[in-house]
Specification:
The complex is a heterodimer of chains A (544) and B (136). Chain A is α/β, with parallel strands linked by helices and 544 residues long. Chain A contains 21 helices and eight strands. In chain A, helix 5 crosses helix 20 and helix 13 packs across helix 14. The chains are: A alpha/beta (544), B alpha/beta (136).
Chain lengths: 544, 136
């Protein structure tokens, strides 16, 4: 499925510039949209009032007049102590939620002293090896009083178990505990590639979490089905939409196949989209996402609870759109992208910092990113109206096209036997790599201009200050890890890991033995190794 | 007998963001080079072994995680040990400016930061090892 060729207006026609007019995804755009473009479109069926099925215009009748989106900024670096300090500052500044960034060894299920962890500990996020680190990460923070989002995927069950044990130590009830784990392994295989186990046992871990949470932690958001990373890897807006929603369908199907009632777990599934630079295309993407999900949940899965129909989503502005050149331009890009997310009705938003093409953000850059959201919320006036662009011929046409394009991808993937099968055949991976290459060619040929990179270049740029993370965190984490291993009850750890292996081989829910491993201070690396022994590791066949 | 320039593109470290590595691999292939992509999470030992086995002229590393100051010294040490002195090593990715001279000092031939045109990398390789492509 290739995107359509660019519509090139012949030179001289109607005084238009002789160039192609396409979205950033390569979709041709006409000069003007009129009622003639909306043949078959009906207000009551396609875009009824906000709060009405299929929620194209929003899931809440009052939009942001009732409640603004959550401004949740992703943070984490170095040791648990350093990140704990940053969280306390954020909470003191009025934040009510946290969002944890983990380092690569943690994301890949490796302890800080593993050879693969060399040079990576604490660099891209906080290092968490055992319960001892999690206790320090949330020291002095009441988990019963806040919500926490944790960006963790393959080792999500281990990190979630640690969070639950810290909550237990603080006396917080699991029944009222709320937050989110990303826990979206399909997009890891498709795009971000932080996978450990093969797809099928990875899906089993996720259905174990669905089952466990339905009973033990009913207010927890068990998964955040993510298009963000798919887009960052080079997908078009349509591919982001289609692959993400099809991933969502795959999770629901596996949950239903594991014996759960659809309405018992789907209301706790949320989504996470990118906000890229092509303004109207992005807004259409969010509107189409709500519309498609509502219909699929009602018609394909027979969901009866309207909470299962309502797609809730977090948005992050497009990291990949930020440039190392003239980095202050990134503030402008981020503001426009954030505005698109707001006009698309996002429920939660992270705005990137201006220095993110260079390094992790400095505290000053991170504050400016948050202020960008506050300016949109407080000063622009766009929050007074629900779906203010609804009814625009262009936007409604884009929304309809997004919907039909996604349906074509669904049909292709269904024919392949579902998303797990499509991933095993490398289908979404190839589609995305193709789009990434095509976009890069458009930049090289200057068909697409990126200010400061291939147009409006400034040879005499002044550098911006950046955050430089040294190796002190790695040394501290190594010492902590050796200390934990020396002090814990080795027999209890070995027994807990044996029980975990046994559960993985059989059908018992893996969350219960994982909780025992965590309480015994088994490390993330040890728990993942136990499962690697049973399930093996996934290796992608390299292809270009 | 004509021989094409042989390039090993590798992603060392734990990071899985392979968009850049794959785009560059395709650009070099489209420019007429023989490109071997190692895939993800290769150790310096594996990368050097691949370069040796493939008789590579160029090793291209894509690193975005901040681990370059650990990976590059080890890789250059192995290159010297294996006497692969005629292989040039290029690094692309997110590299703080202060590290660029350090990478050059340890023998990295080229450092390419975000936003550099693909054609610059093609031209750089042709200028450095293009003569090897003729006859051998």
């Amino acid at each position: 499925m290739k995107s359509a060729p660019a519509a090139v207006t012949p030179p001289g026609v109607s005084g238009e510039r002789p160039r192609s007019f396409t979205t950033i995804s390569g979709r041709p755009v006409e000069r003007l949209y009129t009622p003639g473009d909306l043949e078959g479109w009906r207000y009551d069926r396609d875009t009824p009032d906000p709060g009405d099925f299929p929620y194209t215009r929003g899931i809440h009748p009052t939009g942001y007049r009732g409640k603004l989106w959550t401004m949740r900024q992703f943070a984490g670096f170095g040791t648990p102590e350093e990140t704990n300090e940053r969280y306390k500052q954020l909470l003191a500044a009025g934040g009510t939620g946290l969002s944890v960034a983990f380092d690569l060894p943690t994301l890949m299920g490796r302890d800080p002293d593993h050879p693969y962890s060399l040079g990576e500990v604490g660099k891209c996020g906080v290092s968490i090896a055992s319960l001892a680190d999690m206790e320090r990460l949330f020291d002095g923070i009441r988990l019963g009083d806040i919500t926490t989002s944790m960006t963790i995927n393959s080792p999500a069950p281990m990190i979630f178990a640690m969070y639950l044990v810290v909550a237990e130590q603080q006396g917080a009830s699991w029944q009222t505990l709320s937050g989110t784990i990303q826990n979206d392994i399909l997009k890891e295989f498709i795009a971000q590639k932080e996978y450990i186990f093969p797809p099928r046992p990875s899906m089993r871990l996720i259905t174990d979490i669905f089952q466990f949470c339905a009973k033990e932690v009913p207010k927890w958001n068990t998964i955040s089905v993510s298009g963000y990373h798919i887009r960052e890897a080079g997908a078009t807006a349509l591919q982001e939409l289609a692959f993400t929603l099809r991933d969502g369908i795959e999770y629901v199907q596996w949950g239903v196949d594991s014996g759960l009632d659809v309405d018992a777990f789907v209301p706790r599934i949320s989504f996470f989209f990118n906000a890229h630079s092509d303004f109207f295309e992005e807004i259409a993407k969010y509107r189409a996402a709500r519309k498609i999900w509502a219909r699929v949940m009602r018609d394909r899965f027979g969901a009866k609870d309207e909470r299962s129909w309502k797609l809730r989503f977090h948005t992050q502005t497009a990291g990949v759109s930020l440039t190392a050149q003239q980095p202050y331009n990134n503030v402008v890009r981020t503001a426009l992208q954030a505005l698109a997310a707001v006009l698309g009705g996002t429920n939660s938003l992270h705005t990137n910092s201006l220095d993110e093409a260079l390094a992790l953000p400095t505290a000053e850059a991170a504050t400016l990113a948050l202020r960008t959201q506050q300016v949109i919320a407080s000063e622009s006036g766009v929050t007074h109206i629900v779906d203010p662009l609804g009814g625009s011929y262009f936007l409604e046409k884009l929304t309809l096209d997004m919907e039909s394009g996604a349906q074509q991808y669904f049909d292709t993937i269904d024919r392949m036997g579902g998303m797990v099968a499509a991933i095993e055949q490398g289908f979404p991976q190839r589609e995305i790599a193709e789009s990434a290459y095509r976009f890069q060619q458009a930049v090289e040929s200057k068909d697409k201009i990126i200010v400061g990179v291939n147009g409006f270049v400034d040879e005499n740029e002044a550098p911006v200050p950046i955050l430089y993370i040294d190796d002190r965190a790695a040394d501290a984490q190594m010492t902590r890890l050796h200390d934990v291993r020396a002090k814990r009850d080795a027999g209890r750890v070995a027994k807990a890991l044996d029980d975990l292996r046994a559960a993985a081989r059989g059908a018992e829910n893996t969350m219960y033995p994982l909780l025992d491993c965590v309480r015994a201070y088994a490390t993330v690396g040890e728990m993942c190794d136990a499962l690697r022994e049973v399930w093996g590791e996934w290796e992608e066949v390299p292809s270009i | 007998m004509t021989r094409r320039i042989r390039v090993v593109i590798a992603k060392p470290g734990l990071d899985g963001h392979d968009r850049g590595a794959k785009v560059i691999a395709r650009a070099l292939r489209d420019a007429g080079m023989e490109v071997i992509y190692t895939g993800l999470r290769q150790t310096p030992e594996q990368i050097v072994a691949a370069a040796l086995q493939e008789d590579a002229d160029v090793i291209g590393l894509s690193i975005l995680s901040g681990a370059h100051m650990h990976i590059c010294p080890r890789l250059m040490e192995l290159i010297r040990e294996r006497k692969l002195d005629d292989v040039i090593v290029l690094v692309g990715g997110i590299i703080p400016d202060v590290d660029v001279p350090k990478l050059h000092a340890m023998g990295i031939a080229g450092v390419f930061l975000p936003g550099r045109p693909m054609q610059d990398i093609v031209d750089f390789i042709n200028a450095r090892v293009g003569d090897r492509a003729e006859v051998r």
